[in-house]
Amino acid sequence: MALRAAVGLFACLAAFRVAGAEGDVHFGLTKFLAMQAGFEAGQADAIGLGNQRVESGDMQFVALLFDYACLGRDTELAQEVAARSFPAVTQAPGPAQQRAVVAGSEAAWALARKLDAVPSSQAGFRLYQLGEALHALQDSYSHEGVPDTPQTAPLFNCDAEMSWAHPRTRGGWNSHAADLTHRWPAQTVEMAKATYDVLLGYPAIGTAQRKPADWAKVRPLLDGFVKASSKAAKQAWFVAHGISDTSFLEGISLKDGAKRFDLEWDGRRLPPLPEFESRQHETDAGLLDFFNRFFVQWLSTDDFDALAKAQAAPATKSRSAAAANADKTELAARLRLWRVRDHGAVAD
Questions:
Q1: Which of 218, 239, 231 is nearest to 346 (CA)?
Q2: 3, 2, 7, 1: which is closest to 330 by C-alpha?
């Protein structure tokens, strides 16, 4: 019973990786703007990579909301998340209304300001840090507002004074609406301008002097990017503007569009898996064995209803048959959706 309950818990927790803007902004747009600001192609890549890796694999950035605000209470971790993705003057713990994120605020600029004094002799080695600073600034625009609190009862309750999540004004904690540039055109342009200002202000790298384009010339180029509402449309925009490798669009919350998007981005920095079974330390042997078998079943089956029926917790004296059946239906739906590669279709 405990193992089956773990599957249900896992189903609810899987969505708790709270992100901001996605790869189209954090890597692609950042790289484009860096090139317009006079950075070399390799330097622009490094800035975009440092930006995107905040939300795509570097282990020091892995921070799940249920760890610090739901199943556990970790103030230090909550504050680290705020610094990277929810820059606010007032830190957690504290009332959500007092922890509102303001786009382009001094808190949002804090990491970028620290780079103003970087000597030219070190500037070439600090481009990842520049990307991280841009990440926080960019997310201040997509996360602007009062952070929402996940609603997960009766499994567990999340602490409203600790939670960082998309504000309700942008779709709430369980929505990707905040990540979609075409939903927020004016604010996306403001975010791009703030990004460009940081890039322009970054110290010279060595003795090389950058020759940036005027913002007045850059601004009109962004219209197609902002309006693009599918991966295909984003891809076409990037290719038209000199960025031919668009694999960084993998997994963003836009539908594929005119054709299936099959590219895979190799920029994620995840630890290699030497074998298919997990060797997670300090984990109950029975639980580890259960999940090893469960993942193989999930990745190989086409009958998600049968898998959910076999794994969901059954009815008990304290749990009605109707509730048990509802859980099976919910679990089957989640198991099915997680296998869909088009994340935009899943988000819808």
A1: 231
A2: 7
User: What is the overall mean pLDDT for the chain?
Assistant: 88
DSSP per-residue letters across 210-262: --PPPHHHHGGGGHHHHH--SHHHHHHHHHHTT----GGGTT-SS---SS---
Q: How far apart are CA 214 and CA 117, in angstroms?
A: 24
Q: How far apart are CA 129 and CA 111, in angstroms?
A: 9
Structural contact between residues 87 and 106, judged by C-beta atoms closer than 8 angstroms: no
Sign of the C-alpha dihedral computed for residues 4, 272, 254 and 216 taken in this order? positive
Token readout for 292 is 């090893």
Work out the average pLDDT over 290-318.
87
For 189-241, what is each residue's pLDDT tens digit? 999 999 999 999 999 999 889 999 999 999 999 999 999 999 999 999 999 99
- Residues sharing a CB contact under 8 Å with residue 221, sequence separation 6 or more, in sequence order: 241
Q: Distance between CA 46 and CA 213 in Å, rounded?
A: 20
pLDDT at residue 2 tops 70: no
* Residue among 49, 31, 23 nearest 196 (CA): 31
Greatest Cα-to-Cα distance within the chain, rounded to the nearest angstrom: 75
